[in-house]
Amino acid sequence: MDLRRTMLFMPGNNPGMLQNGGVFGADAIILDLEDAVAPQEKDAARILVAQALKTVDYGTSEKVVRINPLDTFACKDIPAIVPCCPDAILVPKVESPADIQEVAHLVATAEKPGQATVKLIALLETPRGIAEAYQIATADKRVVALAFGAEDYTASLGAKRTKEGTEIFTARTIVVNSAAAAGIQSIDTPFTDVNDREGLVADTQLAKQLGFKGKLTINPRQIDDIHNVFNPTAQDINWAERIIKAIRKAEAEGAGVASLDGKMVDAPIVARAELILYLSRLLGLAEEAYYE
Ligand SMILES: CC(C)(COP(=O)(O)OP(=O)(O)OC[C@H]1O[C@@H](n2cnc3c(N)ncnc32)[C@H](O)[C@@H]1OP(=O)(O)O)[C@@H](O)C(=O)NCCC(=O)NCCSC(=O)C[C@@](O)(CC(=O)O)C(=O)O
Ligand SMILES: [Mg+2]
């Protein structure tokens, strides 16, 4: 499983940020050619991002480039970026399966022989994109995640953006459910007030509760708080260990259902416990947390 708890945006025309992007420990970095770059800077940013992909060591962070939409500069971005071997392309303002299929075709044409297959992440940030979420998620096998962009979405809706996020609740759950139905990940919208840590943590907790697997990130100071929310806690790991022990004991006694602390333990509970343990092993948390 690829971890995408944090996906850190950095403007593609900012050499300082592009140079340092790998040192913050984000699961993914997104070199942005779209909205963080002014129209007159697009050509320079494309060259800078291509160069960064070839020369900067981003460590274990997944390398993602957000291209421009198909009706603007995507046809210039894809042939310039794909041969520089990004891990994935973030496609903004996706509105239909046809958008994804067209990008997938352009990417396939631009890939060098022997290059690892470039993945696609669809950014849904319009009412139509949300309405077509499942069709978009299943439009091409390169698609590994759906991401949600609340600022563009609420601007298109004409809805006021609030900290509580009532206006985006339906869209968030559609994105999560569509991605899960397609067997891919869902990544939540960024929290745009970089000085409001409490608000960030609350918003990330809500995203996790809804089923998102990560959050778009705009500032390195947000990374640890987001990771802390998505990481299993020592309590989670302890619960998961006890669930697995309880079900193994029940199975040894010929039963498919166990009881722990008075609560029923059956297949979906066991699946949740296994996921927690898998994630904690992946993050190197299991032992440390278990023996606390
Ligand atoms: C927010 C702010 C201006 C705050 O600046 P501040 O200056 O207050 O930050 P400080 O924390 O003081 O910086 C301390 C040190 O960290 C360095 N540093 C900061 N950020 C860094 C970073 N990202 N990567 C590497 N390095 C970084 C900085 O260079 C400094 O380095 P140094 O000088 O050496 O000490 C800044 O973070 C920033 O520009 N973020 C990226 C913004 C961006 O890409 N937006 C577009 C993508 S979202 C989007 O499009 C979503 C969506 O699609 C969704 C929808 O639709 O809803 C849409 O449409 O909205
Ligand atoms: Mg946007």
Automatic annotation (TrEMBL):
<keyword id="KW-0456">Lyase</keyword>
<dbReference type="InterPro" id="IPR005000">
    <property type="entry name" value="Aldolase/citrate-lyase_domain"/>
</dbReference>
<dbReference type="Pfam" id="PF03328">
    <property type="entry name" value="HpcH_HpaI"/>
</dbReference>
<feature type="binding site">
    <location>
        <position position="66"/>
    </location>
    <ligand>
        <name>substrate</name>
    </ligand>
</feature>
<dbReference type="GO" id="GO:0006107">
    <property type="term" value="P:oxaloacetate metabolic process"/>
</dbReference>
<feature type="binding site">
    <location>
        <position position="152"/>
    </location>
    <ligand>
        <name>Mg(2+)</name>
    </ligand>
</feature>
<feature type="domain" description="HpcH/HpaI aldolase/citrate lyase">
    <location>
        <begin position="5"/>
        <end position="220"/>
    </location>
</feature>
<dbReference type="GO" id="GO:0000287">
    <property type="term" value="F:magnesium ion binding"/>
</dbReference>
<keyword id="KW-0479">Metal-binding</keyword>
<dbReference type="GO" id="GO:0008815">
    <property type="term" value="F:citrate (pro-3S)-lyase activity"/>
</dbReference>
<dbReference type="InterPro" id="IPR011206">
    <property type="entry name" value="Citrate_lyase_beta/mcl1/mcl2"/>
</dbReference>
<keyword id="KW-0460">Magnesium</keyword>
<dbReference type="InterPro" id="IPR040442">
    <property type="entry name" value="Pyrv_kinase-like_dom_sf"/>
</dbReference>
<feature type="binding site">
    <location>
        <position position="125"/>
    </location>
    <ligand>
        <name>substrate</name>
    </ligand>
</feature>
<dbReference type="InterPro" id="IPR015813">
    <property type="entry name" value="Pyrv/PenolPyrv_kinase-like_dom"/>
</dbReference>
<feature type="binding site">
    <location>
        <position position="125"/>
    </location>
    <ligand>
        <name>Mg(2+)</name>
    </ligand>
</feature>
<protein>
    <submittedName>
        <fullName>Citrate lyase beta chain</fullName>
        <ecNumber>4.1.3.6</ecNumber>
    </submittedName>
</protein>
